[in-house]
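quick q for whoever's on today - can somebody do inverse folding on this one?? i tried earlier but teh output was garbage lol. tokens:
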């Protein structure tokens, strides 16, 4: 009986670990790209690395003014997405000499201020469901 109880406890613990360790999917779509030229590049950040090295990064071609990427296997937590229209495919955001961006950009939650996106404005939380975001430039 003691052996059976031990096995039952191990199965319950393993099941809880498996359920809590499930990873989610984030789908991000930019819906108002001004042209189909180039690509849209996306960066997924957490609070610690915001606007530095992203947790994940992807690019997507533009079709009829829309671009979509899917970030798979994202653990539960708090994140933000920043993206930009890389019109010339040079894999970087281009700026004017005065520091103003030449290429359009956006962030999750679509809060746009003068200056770069802020983590507190762009953050969202994943718990146990997949997330779909619509981003506007």
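ok took a stab at it. sequence:
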């Amino acid at each position: 009986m003691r052996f059976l109880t031990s096995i039952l406890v191990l199965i319950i613990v393993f099941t809880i670990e498996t359920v809590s360790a499930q990873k989610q999917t984030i789908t991000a779509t930019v819906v108002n790209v001004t042209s189909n030229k180039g690509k849209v590049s996306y960066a997924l950040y957490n609070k610690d690395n915001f606007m530095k090295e992203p947790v994940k990064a992807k690019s997507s071609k533009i079709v009829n003014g829309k671009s979509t990427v899917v970030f798979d296997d994202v653990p539960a937590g708090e994140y933000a997405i920043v993206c930009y229209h890389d019109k010339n495919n040079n894999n970087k955001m281009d700026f004017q000499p005065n520091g103003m961006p030449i290429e359009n950009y956006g962030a999750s939650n679509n809060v746009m201020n003068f200056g770069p996106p802020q983590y507190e404005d762009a953050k969202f939380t994943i718990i146990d469901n997949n997330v779909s975001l619509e981003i506007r430039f």
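fwiw Confidence is low (pLDDT under 50) at residues 3-10, 16-20. also Helices lie at 2-20, 119-122. so keep that in mind when u check it
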